[in-house]
Amino acid sequence: MSMENKEKPNVYQEVTKRIVMSLTQGDIPWRKPWNTPIQKGAFSYTTGKAYRGINRFLLNKPGEYLTFNQAKKLKGNIKKGEKGQYIVKYGIFIPAKDKKEAERLESLGQSTEHLKQIYIKYGYVFHIDQTEGIKSKVVQTEMKPSENPVGLANSIIRQYHQNTFVTIMETEQDFCAFDKEQNTILTPERKQFQYEEDWYYQVFREIAHSLLPPKEDKKKDEAKDELIIEMAASMLMNTAELENKETEKNTTAKCQEWIRILNNDYRIAISAAAQAEKIVRSITEPLFGTDEPDDETDESSEEPADL
Q1: What is the predicted pLDDT for the residue at 306?
Q2: Would you say residue 190 lies in a domain?
Q3: Does 68 share its domain with 167?
Q4: In this structure, are 82 and 25 located in the same domain?
Q5: Is CB count within 10 Å lower at the N or C end of the chain?
Q6: According to the model, what pLDDT value does residue 108 have?
Q7: Domain span including residue 96
């Protein structure tokens, strides 16, 4: 596959800038509400599909989103003074000039990988509240507190165990870790945590840790791995409808560390979010089914013209 990128030169920098801006204000973007298999967050008005990957963290409000052109086709319009929200689309395509060659190779049963190119592009979408003349497709229902607030979290842990045969062992200790040799996640007892939600968050971190792909140079990828783990654990917390109750002091310290990591490698945010998404979906799809994303990597014969 050709690694010639078709991205706008500033896509990675722009994504990093927006996330760093949130972190500077003490807001960790991946801990905001986003889509889950149970209750959707940000999703496309036209397709009904959820935004995933880095776009989970770029869209700051749950609900339906449209592009300017999509709103126009629906004979609606964007309210005066409203600004679009930045999103990213990335994937693989075969350029139009190579399409005939691709068809020839496919007819011979040969690979077309060398003809494929990677693209990444950006666009802007508007929340339905920013539009006029467009009726929401969402049926409003009253949200009631769950009678078993940790039920979903336990289902996720059970599914993870079925996938991997890794067991969770609680003992009175001062650390949480994945023991690869014993195929066990070791955690302190729940009673050692001020909030039960924090116990689940630590377990989800180790679940993500255990599912990281093996690396040749672990030290080199340590910062990226930590970001993947953090994002995946936060996604699982949201899927389980649990709140992360970290103290403001801990949140401030983490924001400063993420800012350092992101500024050191402006491509890391998009890549880490995509890998965290894969980890989460490997566990949640057997539980809740497949909800194909609206914005993740795709593969087509030509580069798409619009988001």
Answers
A1: 44
A2: yes
A3: no
A4: yes
A5: N
A6: 94
A7: 11-142+292-300
Domain-located, residue 205:
yes
Q: Does one domain contain both 94 and 74?
A: yes
**Total domains, the chain:** 2
Question: Tens digits of per-residue pLDDT, 176-219?
Answer: 999 999 999 999 999 999 889 999 999 999 999 999 988 766 66
- Identify whether 75 is part of a domain: yes
Q: What is the pLDDT of residue 287?
A: 85
Residues 109, 53 share a domain: yes
Residues 32 and 106 in one domain: yes
User: What's the pLDDT score for residue 303?
Assistant: 46
Rounded to an integer, the average pLDDT of 30-56 is 76
Give the CA angle between residues 23, 129, 53 to the nearest 5°.
Answer: 45
Q: What is the 3-state secondary structure (H, E, C) of the chain?
A: CCCCECCCCCHHHHHHHHHHHHHHCCCCHHHCCCCCCCCCCEEECCCCCECCCCHHHHCCCCEEEECHHHHHHCCCEECCCCCCEEEEEEEEECCHHHHHHHHHHHHCCCCCHHHCEEEEEEEEEEEHHHEECCCCCCCCCCCCCCCCCCHHHHHHHHHHHHHHCCEEEECCCCCCEEECCCCEEEECCHHHCCCHHHHHHHHHHHHHHHCCCCCCCCCCCHHHHHHHHHHHHHHHHHHCCCCCCCCHHHHHHHHHHHHHHHHHCCCHHHHHHHHHHHHHHHHHHHHHCCCCCCCCCCEECCCCCCC
Q: What is the pLDDT of residue 89?
A: 86
Q: Tell me, yes or no, whether 98 and 183 share the same domain.
A: no
Beta strands 184-187 and 63-66: pairing type? unpaired
Sheet bearing 117-127, strands edge to edge = 42-44, 63-66, 117-127, 85-93, 299-300
125 & 161 share domain: no
Per-residue pLDDT at 68: 95
| Distance, CA of 189 to CA of 114 (rounded, Å) | 52
> What's the one-letter identity of residue 220?
K
Mean pLDDT of 71-96: 92
Quick one: 49 and 73 in the same domain?
yes
